[in-house]
């Protein structure tokens, strides 16, 4: 049943979702009915203590992370997305990625265009009261805290919360979840841009175009008019959008959403997790690290100099930001994409060269520590150097860019979680006494 929420501009994606729902629900019901008591894997004591690493305990439709191959969005690797999804130049437009994550299908140019127009149109209507709240925040407040507050303030607009209040059937909640998701994805760039111009510029937002994609409009609002920067932002928004369900931001959003909190409440919580230095905040730390290294050992240091710098950093008790991963055991393909972008558009950039030099040395140094599970770079190791090339030097803003992107993935998952009527999440926990008793008996 198509609800009154159906709007013409995104009718194709909405209709496709309506078509996909019965068969997807049916597939899940069959698995549950026929195989619900099958054991997928054991849980070790180490996993309980060690952050649940590797425990398969979440259903996530939108993407899957392989430790050796990296992320696949609905089965497509990053290079496949770059080839197959509608783009302006080479990098997919964010709207096409959302379409893919929602439907599992590559949109045609027309389908992506419909969604692009819808998102641009929604971006024009930004609640005045939220603008006032954001403009009243202290400039000293970290941009991620501002973003989280802004997303929370948008909650007043939630169709999902209204649907809950009027007693909408659980099976229909995906419709208002989709409506909120589209509004959130459309408006979060403006929110982020407001934070940017308030904190670092004169407070004036650039104008957006009806026929531009989300990336171009986001950059325009922040005052960036270089088409290559728009292309970098396309790359950025695509590669950061989703990383299966277990990472802190996606997991938190999913967890909070399972209580039938609406997408704004859920994603504001997810953003607070993204703001942690071991997760999204690492991107600002990476640029700080590269700049510090440049200051200490120069623009083109030898490998010996870099090795010494890294060892000194580790000896002081710091991590090497941008290196390591809880799941990946190879160089992150998202790092590779960014390195390729740097080689294509800015082969002589000093900071990008430093990132490349660090990549030659850091894995060896981290391996030598003997405890690091993955000594290779992750997504955060490169982005700051690319952004700095185009003049975006304000590194404490970088995690906000990650937040704009991650909304795309977690919202797609949110819609599916409600479409599949997944229950409230409530895993069991054990006490230390329980563990001691268990180990005594085994
Ligand atoms: N530099 C120094 N030490 C590191 C390290 C790094 N880059 N990566 C891991 N280690 C250390 C850990 O601190 C841990 O040490 P202790 O046993 O003394 O506590 C040890 O190696 C084992 O950790 P691990 O199993 O390799 O890594 P985890 O799965 O526990 O954590 C991560 C993964 C990403 C938090 C970790 O590698 C790290 O802190 N990296 C630097 C921060 C970073 O880049 N974060 C961004 C990740 C991507 C994202 O989520 O956005």
Automatic annotation (TrEMBL):
Q: Does the keyword Transferase apply?
A: yes
Query: What GO terms are given for molecular function?
Result: acyltransferase activity, acyl groups converted into alkyl on transfer
| Record-level GO BP terms | carbohydrate metabolic process; tricarboxylic acid cycle
According to the UniProt record, one GO cellular component term is: mitochondrial matrix
- Keyword entries, A-Z: Transferase
Q: Which NCBIfam families match?
A: PRK09569.1
Q: Which family does it belong to?
A: Belongs to the citrate synthase family.
Protein name as annotated = Citrate synthase
């Amino acid at each position: 049943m198509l609800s009154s929420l159906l709007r013409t501009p995104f009718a194709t994606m909405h209709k496709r979702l309506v078509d996909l729902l019965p068969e997807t629900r049916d597939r899940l019901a069959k698995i549950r009915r026929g195989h619900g008591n099958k054991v997928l894997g054991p849980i070790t004591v180490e996993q309980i203590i060690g952050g649940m690493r590797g425990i398969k305990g979440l259903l996530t439709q939108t993407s899957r992370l392989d430790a050796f191959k990296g992320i696949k969005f609905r089965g497509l690797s990053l290079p496949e997305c770059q080839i197959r999804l509608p783009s302006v130049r080479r990098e997919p437009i964010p709207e096409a990625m959302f379409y893919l994550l929602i439907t599992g299908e590559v949109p045609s140019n027309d389908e992506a265009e419909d969604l692009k127009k819808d998102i641009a149109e929604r971006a024009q209507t930004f609640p005045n009261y939220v603008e006032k709240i954001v403009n009243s925040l202290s400039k000293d407040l970290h941009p991620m805290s501002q973003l989280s507050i802004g997303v929370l303030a948008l909650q007043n607009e939630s169709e999902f919360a209204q649907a809950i209040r009027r007693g909408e059937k659980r099976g229909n909640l995906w419709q208002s979840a989709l409506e909120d998701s589209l509004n959130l994805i459309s408006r979060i760039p403006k929110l982020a841009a407001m934070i940017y111009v308030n904190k670092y510029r004169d407070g004036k937002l650039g104008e957006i175009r009806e026929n531009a994609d989300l990336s171009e409009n986001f950059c325009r609002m922040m005052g960036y008019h270089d088409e290559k920067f728009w292309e970098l932002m396309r790359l950025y928004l695509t590669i950061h959008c989703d990383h299966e369900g277990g990472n802190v931001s996606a997991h938190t959003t999913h967890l909070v959403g399972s209580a039938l909190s609406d997408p704004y409440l859920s994603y504001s919580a997810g953003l607070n997790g993204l703001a942690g230095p071991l997760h999204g905040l690492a991107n600002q730390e990476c640029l700080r690290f590269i700049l510090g290294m440049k200051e200490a050992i120069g623009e083109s240091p030898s490998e010996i100099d870099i090795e010494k710098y890294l060892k000194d950093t580790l000896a002081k008790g710091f991590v090497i930001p941008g290196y390591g991963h809880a799941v990946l055991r190879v160089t992150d393909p998202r790092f590779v994409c960014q390195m390729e972008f740097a080689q294509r558009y800015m082969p002589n950039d000093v900071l990008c060269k430093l990132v490349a030099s660090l990549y030659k040395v850091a894995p060896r140094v981290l391996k030598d520590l003997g405890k690091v599970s993955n000594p290779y770079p992750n997504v955060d190791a490169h982005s700051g150097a690319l952004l700095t090339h185009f003049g975006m030097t304000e590194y404490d803003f970088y995690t906000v860019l990650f937040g704009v992107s991650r909304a795309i993935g977690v919202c797609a998952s949110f819609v599916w979680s409600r479409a599949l009527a997944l229950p409230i999440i409530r895993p069991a926990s054990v006490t230390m006494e329980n563990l001691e008793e268990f180990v005594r008996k085994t």
